[in-house]
Amino acid sequence: MITKNKKSASLFDALLPITVLLTLLAMAVYFFGDDSSSGPNQIGLILCGGIACLIGLKNGYSRKEIEDGIVKGVSLTLGAILILLAVGSLIGTWLLAGTVPTMIYFGLQIIDPQYFYVSCAILCALVALCIGSSWTVAATIGVALMGVSSGLGASAPITAGAIISGAYFGDKLSPLSDTTNLAAAVSGTELFAHIKNMLWSTVPSFFLALSVFFFLGLNNVEPVSNNQVNQLMTSLENEFYISGLLLFPLIVTLLLAMKKIPAFPAIGIGALVGAACAIIFQQELILNYATEGLSALEANIMVIWQVMFAGVSLNTGNEAVDDLLSGGGMASMLNTIWLIISAMVFGSIMETVGLLQRVVESLFHLTKKAGSLISTTIVTAFGINCISADQYIAIVMTGRMYKDTYKERELAPENLSRALEDGGTVTSALIPWNTCGAYMQSVLLVNPLEYAVFCFFNWLSPLIGISCAFAGFKVKRLFVGVNDSNRKLAKESLDK
């Protein structure tokens, strides 16, 4: 709400920081390429946050109000930051324990290269449906599949696209998912009514994506000789103890997720279980990795400690194995955390000084009919994903802005909740500076600018949602078949 001392932001005010940001991000890619998220994007976000701050001061907002908005916005990401740090440790201990090498070893044996991409999507979808977390799927199954991809000579960006497509499909339809519950709550929809209504845009999108991944696998994955696969498997056996027992950390983590244990403690426990397995099964590797002159106890303590904060750095003499199985550690996540904080500074200022609200208000004149309203909702959620850099903000803010409009147009809340998921949930991983895009890059080690084009489900879901809206397909209306007098009573009851 604008007070007497504050001026409403003009559309020029609102679009100026966004225009400058898009220009700077494009320049960052031009000058720095894949390294644009390692500092250049952060500088662009901070500079544009400064521009938004100056506009806010011009319009009457105090420095204290803006600072409080930044603190509030950044604090919303602390949960994601803690999860990122835990994931870094988990990847490090699972590499050392042999959990990831074991998954790669078995994956090389059972997955046909020609069906690799479609298998990735289906496997990630099933696991995400069971546990309700695309992030956990990417950090566990996804990391192993990226390793299998390297062993099979498959494309890393296409593999990442298949992993993300499957993970977000399962996440979106899982009653355990936080975003699914959030979209239903914000729109005022019963959870399972929301999930049932999402099937109309989600299932066709996923089957179309699977079809594309199937044909990409047939045409883009070169047949790998048994000699190549056997050579890699032999290298894994030489460096690690390989056993089905080493899947125990994965099973523990997935069970904790299914039990609705929050992601941070679940992943943290998974990292500690991985550390325990490393001590039990990989003593030779730990002693080779430790500094000379240490006792066995000291070596175990030092190596586990180091792997949790700095990750694994193998030096086996086999460059392919070293590249495949080195990484992880909390330190590997610091650049991602820097990007998230910078993005949230920009998004928080934009929201605090009313620039984000002004952009959305300019779209209201486009919402004359049900189809245009639902489509505008999807576009708005995607836009807020880009500006605020957080899918939760995109879902909550878009839902609050359009909820009353849906009631006025006598559209069922299921339409709003589906639009929030189509535009807010699934598109978040496509944006490099969004918390989800930054997370996926840090875990899968592929730049969003490379994998985004292959996240077919994440693009098709909003596009099919928009198509259904304009076609009037499965657009649910309130008070169907109710006469005028009863409709009035029903609307009054709904408003209460």
Structural summary, described in words:
This protein is mainly alpha-helical and about 500 residues long. It has 25 helices and no strands. The radius of gyration is 24 Å and the shape is globular. The mean pLDDT is about 85.
| Shape, per Cα inertia axes | globular
- Alpha plus pi helix count: 25
How many runs of DSSP E, i.e. beta strands?
A: 0
Which class of secondary structure composition applies to the elements?
A: mainly alpha
Rg calc: 24 Å
Helix content: over 70%
**End-to-end span in angstroms?**
23 Å
| Strand portion | under 5%
Q: Which key terms come to mind for this protein?
A:
496 residues; mainly alpha; 74% helix; globular
Indicate the topology.
Blueprint: H1 11-32, H2 40-58, H3 63-75, H4 78-97, H5 99-110, H6 116-131, H7 134-152, H8 156-173, H9 178-187, H10 191-220, H11 226-239, H12 248-258, H13 263-281, H14 283-289, H15 296-310, H16 319-324, H17 334-352, H18 355-361, H19 370-388, H20 391-408, H21 413-425, H22 435-444, H23 448-451, H24 456-471, H25 484-495
